[in-house]
Amino acid sequence: MHHTLNRGLLAAMLALPLAGCLSLGGEVPDQLLTLTPQSPAPAGTNATGQAKAAIVIFEPGTDQRLNVTRVPVQIDASNVAYLKDATWVEKPSRLFRDLIAETVRAKGNRLVLNEGDLGHAAETRLSGQLLDMGYDVASGSAVVRFDAVLQMPDGTVRSRRFESRIPSAAEAVSVGPALNQAANQVASEIAAWIG
Q: Of 154, 36, 46, which Cα lies nearest the Cα of 110?
């Protein structure tokens, strides 16, 4: 009996570290949101070329309102809240950068490098500021707004603002897909602009 008790105690002690890793309710949001490309590059897609001819896509800057994993809701000109029961799987700026990179890659006419790897050698660089990726109460829509800056190999710098608004109800189950659609629309326009 003493042996059985020790085994039960050992099992309980081993389960304790797992309790910190798993959550069975409580603070877990109803919706974990991410961005998925509408036209991803197919498996087996190859791209070759000189590193200097590639494009590197940098993670955009954001203000503090977007520098979190929650979805901002613009209530009026000066008031912001966060969408209930919805959380991004990671910061919106990283998700958006990855979406742009995959969209450009899927077009098949550019070699896309990460910021690390050989990204320092690429002479074409896309950066910018993610101004909005949230819900706007006044228009009843999910909004993605991005100020892009494209640095060309010859030193020329081009900039352009991209924006997409998709009508949506103000709840996580609707806002998530609407934001994904808006982000894909902006990423597609950016890919076409880059050429």
A: 46
Residue 134 β-bridge partners: 143
Q: First-to-last CA distance in the chain?
A: 74
> Against a cut of 0.70, is the pTM above it?
yes
Rounded Cα gap, residues 125 and 106, in angstroms = 18
Q: What is the DSSP string of 88-143?
A: ESS-HHHHHHHHHHHHHHHHSSS-EE-SSTTGGG-SEEEEEEEEEEEEETTTTEEE
* Type and span of the H or E element at 6: helix 2-21
State how far the Cα of 32 lies from the Cα of 23, in Å rounded to an integer. Answer: 14
* b/e code 47-75 from CB counts within 10 Å (16+ = b): eeeeeeebbbbbbbebeeebeebbbbbbe
Structure tokens at 190: 């950016």
Write out pLDDT tens, residues 162-174.
999 999 999 999 9
Does 21 have pLDDT greater than 60?
no
